[in-house]
């Protein structure tokens, strides 16, 4: 297996995760719900032309792309929501 190609694909996934987090923060800042399904659609639009090959094999068909976008969207939403919860003032009842 070509580890350089695999590493390159992982770098792209990290970049897409960063874009998903930024988009989720934008949604949250606009007062909209941080919905993983909305973030998935955003990421799919960003990933539409991404066709990585590893050892000469195209590894990103449409179902795989959707699964990757949904996974990254869920992680992005969880990170943004968790950060929001962690920074909220605690009520002392």
Q: What profile does the largest beta sheet have?
A: 2 strands, antiparallel
Rounded Rg: 16 Å
Number of helical elements: 3
Distance between the termini: 58 Å
DSSP, total strands: 2
Overall spatial form: elongated
Structural class: mainly alpha
Spatial strand arrangement across the major sheet: 1-2
Could you say how many structural domains there are in total?
1
Unreliable stretches, pLDDT < 50, 5 or more residues? none
N-to-C SSE string, H for helix and E for strand: HHEEH
What distinguishing features does this structure have?
single chain; 93 residues; mainly alpha; two-stranded antiparallel ribbon; 3 helices
Write up what this structure looks like.
With 93 residues, the chain is mostly helical. The protein has one domain (3-83). It is 70% helix and 4% strand. The chain is built from 3 helices and 2 strands. The chain has helices spanning 3-29, 36-47, 62-87; strands spanning 53-54, 57-58. Strands 1-2 form a two-stranded antiparallel sheet. Strand 1 and strand 2 (57-58) form a beta hairpin. Helix 1 packs across helix 3. It is elongated and about 55 Å long. The model has no long low-confidence stretch (mean pLDDT 89).
Task: Give the SSE map.
Elements: H1 3-29, H2 36-47, E1 53-54, E2 57-58, H3 62-87
Antiparallel strand pairs: 1-2
Helix pairs in contact: 1-2, 1-3, 2-3
Can you give me a brief rundown of this structure?
The protein is mostly helical.
């Amino acid at each position: 297996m070509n580890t350089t190609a695999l590493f390159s694909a992982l770098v792209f996934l990290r970049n897409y995760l960063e874009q998903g987090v930024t988009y989720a923060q934008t949604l949250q800042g606009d007062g909209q719900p941080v919905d993983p399904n909305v973030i998935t659609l955003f990421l799919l639009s960003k990933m539409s032309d991404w066709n990585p090959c590893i050892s000469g094999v195209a590894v990103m068909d449409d179902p795989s792309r959707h699964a990757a976008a949904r996974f990254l969207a869920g992680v992005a939403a969880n990170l943004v929501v968790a950060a929001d919860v962690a920074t909220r003032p605690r009520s002392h009842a």
